[in-house]
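I hope you will forgive my troubling you with a question about protein structure. Could you please explain, in whatever detail you think fit, how the structure tokens follow from the sequence? Thank you for your consideration; the sequence and its tokens are set out here.
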Amino acid sequence: MHIQIAFAAFGANLPAKNVIAAYQPYFDGVAQAVTRIPDQPTLVMPGAIHKMDGIVRPPQYQKISSGEVVLEVSATITYNDFYDKPHRYYTKTRYDHVNRNFMKLEETLT
């Protein structure tokens, strides 16, 4: 199972600065280990889409596909706006094994 989280700079036609993005998968509410590239703050231009990728391998994939294990994924993106004001975007989704897609559970922007 391939997990892909896409994000972009929306809102004003100004870039987001010092962007740091991270995601965390959970199996039945238990955080799973994630191999990550160390955070490299970057600039995200308006409209440019960036992606975070992850893979769930067997045997967990079969358990998630059957509904035996619940997969939830949270993503946190922090950045500074053009005026250096800090912002944080957070979203949490749950995989719906019947419809084979992710349902949004929570979303905040501060």
